[in-house]
Amino acid sequence: MLSSKKSTLVVLLGMLLAIISFACSSSETIPLHTMDPKSDVTRDVQGLYIILFSAATVVFFAVMAGLLYITLRFKRKPGDPIPLQTHGNRSLEILWTIIPSVILIVILVPTWQVIYKTANAPENSMQITVTGHQWWWEIEYPDLEIATSNEVHVPINVPVEITLKSKDVIHSFWVPQIIGKKDMVPGLENMIWFTAEEAGTYYGQCVEFCGESHANMKFDLVVDSTEDFEIWKANQLQNAKEPQGLALEGLTIFTSKGCTGCHKIEGTVAMGTIGPNLTHIGSRNKIAAGMLDNNADDIAKWIRNPEEIKPGNLMSKTGGMYTDTKFALSEDEIQALVAYIQSLK
Amino acid sequence: MATHSTTVKGISERVTYTGLMSWLTTVDHKRIGVLYGFTAMFFFLVGGLEATVIRMQLFSPGLTLVTPGMYNSLFTMHALTMIFLAVMPLGAAFFNFIIPLQIGARDVAFPRLNAFSYWVFLFGALLLNGGWLINAVPDVGWFAYAPLTANEYSGFGTNFFILGLLVLGVSSVAAACNFIVTILNMRAPGMTLMRMPVFVWMTLIISLLLVFAFPVLTVGLIELLLQRFYDMQFFTVSQGGEPILWQHLFWIFGHPEVYILILPAMGIISDIIPTFAKKPLFGYGFVVGSGVAIAFLSFAVWAHHMFTTGLSALTLSVFSGATMLIAIPTGVKVLNWMATLWRGSLDLRTPMLFSIGFIATFVVGGLSGVIHASPPVDTQQQDTYFIVAHIHYVLFGGSIMGIFAGIYYWFPKVTGRMMNETLGKLHFWLFFIGINLTFGPMHLVGILGMPRRIYTYPSGMGWTFLNQIETIGVFIIIIGMIAFLFNYIRSARNGEFAGNDPWDGRTLEWTIPSPPPEYNFATIPVVRSREPLWDTKHPELGDNLPSDFGTSDNVDTNSIHMPNASYWPLVTGVGVGLGGALFLVNPILGVIGILITTVGVYAWSFEPAAPEGH
Amino acid sequence: MQHTEASEQQNTDHANTTKLNMRKLLMWVFLGSDCLFFGAFIATYMLYRNSSLVGPYPQEILSIPVTSASTFILLTSSLAMVLALTAFQRGNTSAARFWLFSTAFLGCTFLGFQVFEFYTFVEEGLTPQTNLFGATFFTLTGFHGFHVMLGVIWLFSLLGVSMTRGIPAEKSLDVELAGLYWHFVDIVWIVIFTVVYLLSSLPSASSH
């Protein structure tokens, strides 16, 4: 039987190994990884995170080691006398009140520093407004007069300030590698800001329970190189591409089935503002707020049965082609619509 | 005891009943404690079932075990059930049974009010779950943020949430008032506040927290009710309302609530550890003082649940400071428990195992809490499984472990028999392993970005393997529960007889028979130290005076005055519960509840509490 | 003295570590809780003081003169309550019943003023549904009025007991408890009167 000291060491080493074995990972394999900062703000948060985590880990090991040691060392053996009836020790109490207080002040000071540092956006930040809806994201660039949905583009190394709003219930905007979360509260305008430092496509998700399809409300935040952003911007400012062939048929169906009532496609009769702006949907990575890929099969899947992808969504609840079998879409009509959607680059 | 000189019209024989009626009319704190205990344990199993389904749904990406709507109801009800119908009433079960015994009293200050609290709790519990019957289960999350709870965005289930909690609030506040008066006023002679067992102190603190925190929730619930039923737009943005108001009202209650959930367990293990270490609690004054500090601070930290809602930098700084501050008294308690164990003579039987296990798992929960006490860090942790890990380490690894410690510790006193030690140890290890396997990986999966309250997740997120471990952990916990239930039922029937003092105890409850007679103490003890029984058994050990327990030989126990049984608490409770339920059918019908309550209150007021000559 | 000894003995009051009567302590704890109840409604009112998007607005519709009168009546009822209690404690039954009745009567008058005010407001276009002022005002004063109503019922019940089986000096605690409750309700009204009525006459920071 190992001595209590040896047993303690063995168990602690085991725990340490387990933690280390999980420690190494990155957002390449884990899209929502929260400890892989790619912007200035998340880098500051990460620094703080590591301080706190380290302090907590040290305390954790100290307490566990202590408990383990105590339990093994002082376990009662037959014949043991009644132990000394110590009632307390005032100096010890003071000491172990002061030490945690000091540790906490050590944690609190950088906390306050980061709070104030990240509180206000730099002057002349690029302005974006994101409005949360059940269960998609409305995105506007007020100064650039761009409106889109579900995919935010930002240029690298440029400070960006996002105003967060909501049309219905509380949502929360979060792209862990780029910016920590902030709630989108109806009636409020909450601000976040960051400067992205590495180009790429980042995964974002709603993180405030917002109803039936809360789990199905995702988005992409694309950090473009300076040139790519200009290209994207120029494209966004154009009206929708004129459709040809099957896609043109799709536009006709789009209009006749009343999709124009909810969706906006610049340069067409579709002027609806209830649902996402589809002007350039063809050029996005995903559709249905991060739910499906932007390919023919997935688009068809969505149009065929949106309720299956995003239960409770407004389109299935109010769209005539879903609520009334008289107006249901035939497979041909769906294919035409898919062609149209894909053409909206 | 002087006799009344006034003539009181009424019965001079004590009112009692037998059989089922005796349970329905009981005002005996021990019976009420048992009622709370069994009801709460039932709901603990219900909450556990809800959790099991949740974890099965999350075993793999894209499972369709339940619909999204059902999943949302499950996590809402799991939390509501565990918090309000399991952990709180399990605490109440202990307050009821044990407090009078630990302070040397024969009952609580207001026995009928005590019974009323139980009945209202039962009806509130049924009302909260009433939605299952008509497929209208609350599905807005247990903290039910506005505007999701508006008529526009949520269904009838939200009404069960509102009325259920309103009714439960009545129960909790009534019980809390009762315990404050009991603890302040009914202590045995010589038991000063600083001689009370720590469990009694914690109960006093919890009761004060309840009394001051619950009304704020009640107001929020009433405002939500008025909005949903009568179009009074408290939280509607289009009318100028602010959804954040709900959050403030809820969390001003909600934060003290979490201390209400953890302090009973802390009190329980503060009694168990000295007994099983054969040493007094180290730093009693500091442990008590920490409890008081935590109580005060708990009203100053609520906005840490709202760090991501858009609070100003100043507000964030103040609340993060206060939250970190509250870690200090908590840490002091942990260190004092460890110092009690240090150089003790540790008896590692089941109550002690659960107590030490409590310290280990609670500390993990406390540390994760300190991490997200920092608002910038919280922007990455809020609403992820990291928070879920924190919650469950403090509530399961903390409150539940402590409560089971108490069950094993006081089972002999309640039933007169011992639980099986082997099964108890098995239960402990299964729980300890199960809790760490289920909730440990949640820290990691939260760091890897998994949000909470999602009914499914895609593959390729890096979460699948961890979720599978977590689900397996649940089944280990379930086996542990089976071991416990089997042990409980078998031991209650056939366990070894316990005698008065099976653990070589230190406090008053171990001076009387197991189970205690109806009047608890034949003679009210005269207390001369903090650990009256221990100091009387071991005068050689220190300079504490022995206490005076008298002998039951020459006491005519028939002449001990006990309160009458009464059915008016039940009737009044029915009025409150039925009023809530009928309101949901049609608000006008709530009047029936008011009428029944009024009749109950009047009859209760005019009924003599105890036989004449008392 | 005979009556002090007797007034210390009440039904279930045995152990009495703090020497505070059990039921009195219970009432104090309950009133402490009720403070938070009203406090939360008052906080809601104050948060929304300037948030109503449409009128009627407080300064337009609240009548400080009329409410001052009803406030005075409620305050007087507290005086009557004190007189009732001392009369009961002295065993002066007829005076006691008179003052008890007066308290309840003045309470009813206060309630009458409230009903009149609510009715007038609805006539003038302010309902609980009209705006946030309506919602918060009617809820706050409504719950207060409900507390007053319960108090009035309690007082009349005590009067009934006094007139049937009697309330001797030793049982004056029953009246004292009602008195504590009554004074609490009165104090809450003073806060409401200040926050809702008096503050409404101050220039507000609102945008309308």
Question: What features would you describe in this structure?
Answer:
Chain A contains ten helices and twelve strands. Chain A has 345 residues and is α+β, with helices and mostly antiparallel strands. Chain A has a five-stranded mixed β-sheet with strand order 3-2-1-5-8. In chain A, strands 4-10-9 form a three-stranded mixed β-sheet. Chain A has a two-stranded antiparallel sheet with strand order 6-7. In chain A, helix 2 packs antiparallel against helix 3. By secondary structure, chain B is mostly helical. Chain B has one domain: Cytochrome C Oxidase, Chain A, CATH 1.20.210.10. The longest helix of chain B has 36 residues. Chain B starts with 18 loop residues before the first helix and ends in an 8-residue tail after the last helix. Chain C is mostly helical and 208 residues long. Chain C has one domain: Cytochrome c oxidase, subunit III, four-helix bundle (Four Helix Bundle (Hemerythrin (Met), subunit A), Up-down Bundle), CATH 1.20.120. Helices cover 75% and strands 0% of the residues of chain C. Chain C has seven helices and no strands. Chain C is elongated and about 55 Å long. Chains in contact: A-B, B-C. Chains A and B meet through helix 2, helix 3 and strand 7 of A and helix 3, helix 7, helix 8, helix 9 and helix 10 of B.
Characteristics:
heterotrimer, A: 345 residues, alpha+beta, five-stranded mixed β-sheet, 10 helices, 41% helix, B: 614 residues, mainly alpha, Cytochrome C Oxidase, Chain A, 63% helix
